[in-house]
Amino acid sequence: MHPTSAPVTPTHCPYCALQCGMGLTAAPGGGVEVVERGGFPVNKGALCGKGRTAPALLSSGARLTEPLVRSRATGKLAPATWEEALDRVADGLSRTRAEYGADACGVFGGGGLTNEKAYALGKFARVALGTSQIDYNGRFCMSSAAAAGQRAFGLDRGLPFPLEDIPRTGCVILVGSNLAETMPPALRYLTELRENGGTLIVVDPRRTRTAEQADLHLAPRPGTDLALALGLLHLVVAEGRTDEAYIEERTSGWEEARAAAMAHWPEHVERITGVPVPRLRDAVRLFCDAGSGMVLTARGPEQQSKGTDTVGAWINLCLATGRAGRPLSGYGCLTGQGNGQGGREHGQKADQLPGYRKLTDPAARAHVAGVWGVDPESLPGPGRSAYELLDALGGDVKALLLMGSNPVVSAPRAAHVEGRLRSLDFLAVADVVLSETAELADVVLPVTQWAEETGTVTNLEGRVLLRRRAVSAPPGVRGDLDVLHGLADRLGHGKGFPTEPEEVFEELRRASAGGAADYSGISYARLAEGEGEGVFWPCPDTEPSYPDPEPSRPNPEAPGPAAGPSSDAGPSSDAGPSSDAGGSPGADVADGAETAPHPGTPRLFLDRFATEDGRARFVPVAHRAAAEEPDAEYPVLLTTGRVLAQYQSGAQTRRVDELNSAAPGPFVELHPRLAARLGVVEDEPVAVISRRGRAVAPARVTADIRSDTVFMPFHWPGEGRANSLTNPALDPVSRMPEFKVCAVRVERARGVERARG
Ligand SMILES: Nc1nc2c(c(=O)[nH]1)N[C@H]1C(S)=C(S)[C@@H](COP(=O)(O)OP(=O)(O)OC[C@H]3O[C@@H](n4cnc5c(=O)[nH]c(N)nc54)[C@H](O)[C@@H]3O)O[C@H]1N2
Ligand SMILES: Nc1nc2c(c(=O)[nH]1)N[C@H]1C(S)=C(S)[C@@H](COP(=O)(O)OP(=O)(O)OC[C@H]3O[C@@H](n4cnc5c(=O)[nH]c(N)nc54)[C@H](O)[C@@H]3O)O[C@H]1N2
Ligand code: SF4
Ligand SMILES: [Mo]
């Protein structure tokens, strides 16, 4: 990155939920290059290698530049015109619908899609196809934290405060996040926390680069965070560290939650988690001695078949100690994908309508149907969750349109999912490259990438941001919105699917108005102001220029401006210790100025929670085992996750040379004791075998992992595919699969397969 005099377009990285600000400018040899955009508060110019190298994929030879259609004669994918390709998709979908009914058509989306695309995809499913069968990869990501947040606070927004609050809190417990590798520029906030005298506790079965930064590292067995959180709460009570006044004033349900925690004795918790009682006491002391504190979770505790209860237990710890809904204190989830937050708010989730409304709520249906100009009765009900949808392919669901995901690599029990995809009558995939999933498609639609299109994304703080088009797309590719328009048109609904992102956003504003995630006060013009630091939702329109189709019907699920989070939104409640801080445009608006634009809501819950009575709800939870525990045949625990230089299924980052040489392939991380027992040495290929399949990858022997656990990153297809092994056991509430724990056997891959009997 270097200073430049050429015009710079301010925009955001295409990858993770931090949504780092960057500038794009013409590169001397053609194409674009990244320049620093220091004024954007989240990353202040810093980028990780993925963001820095993101332009490489724009001009990459791996890029798809023409539609591909599977030839009926040869069975191979061959170039086709857009007309042919779109006709074929529309034909595949309408034939399926005619023969088997609308629910035989499925739609699968992604948390990387912009708000406009996610909104249009949900509308496409419900209006153009009339199917209930839509879900997206965000189900694999933060759905457990979202469900727990809804249950406790009445609202789910990844972080209820800006990242800039982190360095000023007293103690952070970071549970199952390796943000030094997954959101590197955010590590600064933890470093500053410690420089300011705050403490950091990291909970991770591995001593990661993040755990290395901690004052205290707890390394529980995978799948036991629920017991750990309950054990800490037990000690908080036993040591008289609860905040009784806060519990009385701001919460409900304490007695039951307290009783549940008291059943989890520290010694018992030590046996379940492997974390010694003195370390539990240290954690309680550090957390309670600090005057304020935060618990932040990521995929470690969430991607479990009890992820919702686990996050609930960590929230209970916050509530019992008065660490929520107060300045510089709270529970937050570090959402993962570029638009992981916005992607779950506007209707690609099986049970959701735009504005974070519930599909089962009659008032929500009426409102959104009004905006869409359709009969509320015509909207289908909730559909299946992501894994259940993939599992139903070839069964009830015969045709699938997939946009923004690569489940052949990223879904649990991936070999089975791959088989289901192959068994479809018809599969269409829109992607920028020929992903492993696109390879199976009947039609592949080549789409534009982030720098070639405009759209909004909502980062992990709930900050709505504008990504701007900086370069023109290569001839032959079209935007996802064009794809949806083209298909809807062929299905007789072209009018409802504009191709201009801003036009879609204007409709999204209206559809979200009055919902929990209210974007109605946000416009492209407003997002482009100043340093483009964005607007935090909820941000209702203080001067609605359109009638609410259902003004008189209260919506108990979706707190409206008066009852819910937006009542915290006023400048007064944002006048916490950081009302001086950046990132809250318009925060100095005069009190009661009726027509002043709403400032947005950087900090939620300071006055009240978004529940009906304004109180946060304790949920009584008890520990339970993982869906699969080790036994004689599968004696080792497998957990999975990420490495710095690869992103997700790797479809994008495996095609960037610099990243690929930094992280060229899969590996199995195992402890020297386990390696010695197996006779495995560094770099030797080892086979990891679960009840679902087998994967082979080189050993990486390290004392940084528990000796009862092995770790594999999931970024690669083929022999080293971690998801050949993972367990699709689902959380009963969030329907999140158990990516973070299953039972495996580990063997030397060279040499004789051990005889079993
Ligand atoms: N480099 C890179 N960055 C990314 C991504 C990427 O693919 N690559 N993806 C983005 C997305 S979508 C997401 S969701 C985020 C994910 O970000 P993270 O949640 O930070 O990523 P993971 O590596 O999946 O998991 C974090 C940690 O959980 C630990 N863990 C495993 N099992 C358990 C357990 O049972 N309990 C606890 N407490 N910890 C456990 C793992 O050892 C790992 O270090 O990253 C985002 N950023
Ligand atoms: N074992 C294991 N498995 C996991 C996880 C884990 O921790 N362990 N984590 C899970 C999590 S948190 C997540 S988020 C999922 C993610 O896994 P995936 O859903 O597979 O995510 P990506 O690899 O980002 O896939 C996005 C695809 O869409 C394409 N794409 C990118 N942008 C666009 C766009 O604008 N439009 C269109 N049409 N296509 C686009 C990309 O090229 C890529 O092929 O993986 C899950 N799988
Ligand atoms: S941390 Fe995330 S948003 Fe920032 S540059 Fe890296 S991948 Fe992009
Ligand atoms: Mo994710």
Automatic annotation (TrEMBL):
<dbReference type="GO" id="GO:0043546">
    <property type="term" value="F:molybdopterin cofactor binding"/>
</dbReference>
<keyword id="KW-0479">Metal-binding</keyword>
<dbReference type="GO" id="GO:0003954">
    <property type="term" value="F:NADH dehydrogenase activity"/>
</dbReference>
<dbReference type="Pfam" id="PF00384">
    <property type="entry name" value="Molybdopterin"/>
</dbReference>
<keyword id="KW-0411">Iron-sulfur</keyword>
<dbReference type="InterPro" id="IPR006963">
    <property type="entry name" value="Mopterin_OxRdtase_4Fe-4S_dom"/>
</dbReference>
<feature type="region of interest" description="Disordered">
    <location>
        <begin position="535"/>
        <end position="604"/>
    </location>
</feature>
<dbReference type="InterPro" id="IPR006656">
    <property type="entry name" value="Mopterin_OxRdtase"/>
</dbReference>
<dbReference type="InterPro" id="IPR050123">
    <property type="entry name" value="Prok_molybdopt-oxidoreductase"/>
</dbReference>
<feature type="compositionally biased region" description="Pro residues">
    <location>
        <begin position="546"/>
        <end position="559"/>
    </location>
</feature>
<feature type="domain" description="4Fe-4S Mo/W bis-MGD-type">
    <location>
        <begin position="6"/>
        <end position="62"/>
    </location>
</feature>
<keyword id="KW-0408">Iron</keyword>
<keyword id="KW-0004">4Fe-4S</keyword>
<dbReference type="GO" id="GO:0016020">
    <property type="term" value="C:membrane"/>
</dbReference>
<dbReference type="GO" id="GO:0046872">
    <property type="term" value="F:metal ion binding"/>
</dbReference>
<dbReference type="Pfam" id="PF04879">
    <property type="entry name" value="Molybdop_Fe4S4"/>
</dbReference>
<dbReference type="InterPro" id="IPR009010">
    <property type="entry name" value="Asp_de-COase-like_dom_sf"/>
</dbReference>
<dbReference type="GO" id="GO:0051539">
    <property type="term" value="F:4 iron, 4 sulfur cluster binding"/>
</dbReference>
<dbReference type="InterPro" id="IPR006657">
    <property type="entry name" value="MoPterin_dinucl-bd_dom"/>
</dbReference>
<dbReference type="GO" id="GO:0022904">
    <property type="term" value="P:respiratory electron transport chain"/>
</dbReference>
<protein>
    <submittedName>
        <fullName>Assimilatory nitrate reductase large subunit</fullName>
    </submittedName>
</protein>
<feature type="compositionally biased region" description="Low complexity">
    <location>
        <begin position="560"/>
        <end position="593"/>
    </location>
</feature>
<dbReference type="Pfam" id="PF01568">
    <property type="entry name" value="Molydop_binding"/>
</dbReference>
